[in-house]
């Protein structure tokens, strides 16, 4: 499959998936486990996720089943996040900052939080650039969160009333990833 992908041979990729359709879910599961292991460079991890996403997409096209692609997209997104933290709330508000350091530009801190239903998250822009937040990954989580432009020194709040996983990005800097897990 990877050879056909390298050659951009769509017919070859589809033929391989069709021929090995029953084996694809287990193969993807094993490859997801392998890509999650420590010691893999960021570039290699991204390359493997690209291959997995293409394989799962072709599988979806052949079978009509979306769950495998959903699991790959979710694992890929989560691989960009730090481990989830129970966010402390001050007066029911959880704070997420947008910051830049010499080592890393444009990041959410923390980028992966757990809160309770009905609580509010405030994003504080401590960067020198504007941000625009959106929970656009509705294929793997909840949608509905979409901020206005958050200028440097400003903040924006969103109250999460529905439990679930909210995967979000900065729509301007598509390298900024975050997640809010809302529990009952």
What is the CA-CA span between the terminal residues? 42 Å
Strand order of the largest sheet: 1-4-9-8-6
Write down the overall mean pLDDT.
94
- The best one-word shape is elongated
Which structural class is indicated by helix and strand composition? alpha/beta
Task: List the quaternary state of the chains.
Answer: single chain
Helix count equals 5
The main β sheet shows up as: 5 strands, mixed
Helix content: 25-40%
Poorly predicted parts:
none
Residues in β-strands, percent: 25-35%
- The Cα radius of gyration reads 19 Å
The number of strands is: 9
SSE pattern, N- to C-terminal? HHHHHEEEEEEEEE
Could you please describe the fold and organization of this structure?
The protein has 184 residues and is α/β, with parallel strands linked by helices. It is built from five helices and nine strands; from the N terminus they run H-H-H-H-H-E-E-E-E-E-E-E-E-E. Helix 2 (10-19) packs across helix 4 and helix 4 packs antiparallel against helix 5 (67-78). The chain is elongated, with a radius of gyration of 19 Å.
What brief labels describe this structure?
single chain; 184 residues; alpha/beta; five-stranded mixed β-sheet; four-stranded mixed β-sheet; 5 helices; 33% helix; elongated
Condensed summary:
With 184 residues, the chain is an alpha/beta fold. It is 33% helix and 25% strand.
Helices and strands in order:
Blueprint: H1 2-6, H2 10-19, H3 24-35, H4 42-63, H5 67-78, E1 85-86, E2 93-99, E3 107-109, E4 112-116, E5 119-125, E6 133-134, E7 155-160, E8 164-170, E9 177-183
Parallel strand pairs: 1-4, 2-5, 4-9
Antiparallel strand pairs: 2-3, 5-7, 6-8, 8-9
